[in-house]
Amino acid sequence: MDIALSTDDTGGPARCCVFLSDNRTGGPVSGALAFLEAQLTVTEEGSGGDGVNAARARNTVRIPLGLLGSDHAGYLSWDLAPLWRQVLQLAERPDGSTAEVRLTHVWLYLGGPLQSAVDVLAEADERAQALVLRLGVDRGGVFTGSANGFPAMQSPSLLDWYLSPASFAYVPAELIGQDGCETLLPSNVATQQYQVHQIVTVPHLLASLDYGAQYAAPAGDDGGTSDGSSGFSVPIALVISYDVTWIPVGHGLGQVTYSLPLAPGEQVQLAVVDWSRTSADSRLEDIALTDDLEHALTRDRTVDEVVKGAVNEWQRGGSVMAGAAGAASMGMFGGSAAIGGGYATTTGDRSVSADTVQNLHDQIRQHSTSVRDMRSTVVVQSRQTENSTAQTRTVRNHNHAHAMTLLYYEVLRHFRVLVERGTVRPAVLLPAASPNLDDELVIVRYRRLLQAGLLDPQLAGGFDAVEKYAAWQELQPEVPVPPDPGSVEFILFQFRFTIGDLSSFQDRVPTTVTLTQRAPDGGQKVTNLVRP
Predict the structure, then answer these.
(1) 439 belongs to a structural domain
(2) pLDDT value, residue 179
(3) Segments forming the whole domain that contains residue 117
(4) In terms of domains, do 150 and 7 share one?
(5) Same domain assignment for residues 159 and 37
(6) Cβ neighbours of residue 329 under 8 Å, at least 6 residues apart?
(7) What's the rounded Cα separation, in Å, for the pair 79 and 52?
(8) Which of 77, 117, 448, 530 could serve as 153's disulfide partner, Cβ 3.0–4.6 Å?
């Protein structure tokens, strides 16, 4: 039997796996060396002058795949990926054409007194993911115990775990107790189970939702589609559920953490000191400051002014004037005489009296009261726990002729993580506005939801600081108004998807989505959505 190998990147089986068992007991054969070799036939076609194939040249190529040693489960696994890469190189020709490459034999050589070769390809199924061969051998026909240091698997994969789980972990019954005196059975019950969801958007698949005349489109939407309707386009997505299960498969040995070499007859005393210290400090500080200032200022001012004045004046006056004149002449003599007289008198009496009285009364009363109350409470709590354990152990090499080395390994616990796809549900992604977390009021309003989703619980004190800042700024969050029970309307949506294979969305298969809206008044509207 041979396999015609593909010239693309698909190749053939991924691995070649062999189980070695004892023909007498049926148990696994460990520590056996095995060499694997692949035999290929490369056929190159030659062309004649008439355009018809004139000759076919066949070449046989042998490709070694490596030397491995069987593990405690008698399992060997070779990675065939390097083989397929060499097949691609053999299939390419300088003129750009490809040659036909066929896998004719996969020879398995077991190390023993008699060199024996087994064709794995003749016993295995070439259409499977791996070439698996179960081979029964006689322990006297193979060399065992000489495979120390040889790996049993090349590039271990998940396929190796499916075929031979015991190769990845030892059963506790094989490690604990001498001669099987203590048997511990591994638990096959899943210890941890999780369920995760993945939302996958489908490209070029949109649904047009129509709210109707009485319902408005969401804020930020263009308010309608290109055809003039009142609907808007929303993407269609798939909600894929996965079940993640952790199943314990046993324990195994890890890295070497410590080695103790002992000379013949040497005795060493080991002291193992396990010391741990836990310190937890907490500080609670509460400061309350109250400052009250009362100031009162009162001023009374009264001005009284009285002015009295009296003026008395009496005036009297008189004037008398009289005159007499006479003249006489006699001859040569003449004479004249004149008499005049006058009298004037004036009398005045004036009395001025003024009285001024001014009364000014100014009173100022000032009262100030200042009360400052400051209370500071600091609670510091410190807790320290210290644990120290010392163990001494004496290790002695009783052999006086040979040295001995003790190796201490770390013990690893192995789990099988199984991820299974659950249900696949279609969904509609509706637009929704996200809150602005830069606003302090938004943080206070959504504190119950945000604090529950904190990845670091030590940041929970920041919410108290935001609330104090909001109170200091006198910011009042809006209290939601409870809805009126009489105005609540329930709208029932019924989705019916008529689709083909979910994996063939990229093939642009026409997909019909029926959206049914049922209003409280009994009306019903059906919208057929077809993917472009």
Answers:
(1) no
(2) 55
(3) 3-168
(4) yes
(5) yes
(6) 335
(7) 40
(8) 77
User: For residue 364, how many other CB atoms are within 10 A of its CB?
Assistant: 9
What lies within 8 Å, CB to CB, of 226 at 6+ separation is: none
Answer whether residue 78 is part of any domain. yes
Tally the domains of the chain.
Answer: 2
Q: Are residues 17 and 124 in the same domain?
A: yes
Q: Which residues of the chain have pLDDT under 50?
A: 48-54, 171-175, 180, 188, 212-230, 501-511, 530-532
Residue 452 has φ and ψ, to the nearest 5°, of -70, -25
Please write the tens of the pLDDT for every residue from 81-127: 888 888 888 888 777 677 888 888 899 998 887 777 888 888 777 67
State the Cα–Cα distance between residues 253 and 71, nearest whole angstrom.
14
Domain end (from 168, 193, 210): 168
Q: What is the DSSP letter of 486?
A: G
Which of these three, 331, 366, 396, is where a domain ends? 396
pTM score > 0.85 for this model?
no
Beta bridge partners of 285: 378
Residue 76 lies in a domain: yes
Write the secondary structure of 37-52 as one string of H (helix), E (strand) and C (coil). Answer: EEEEEEEEEEECCCCC
pLDDT at 472: 78
Whole-angstrom Cα distance, residue 529 to residue 532? 9
For residues 285 and 161, state if they share a domain.
Answer: no
- 403 lies in some domain: no
What is the DSSP-derived secondary structure letter of residue 92? B
pLDDT in tens, 283-314: 888 787 787 888 788 878 787 777 777 777 77
Spatial distance between the Cα atoms of 194 and 242, rounded to a whole number of angstroms: 8
148: left (phi over 0), alpha (psi -120 to 50) or beta: beta
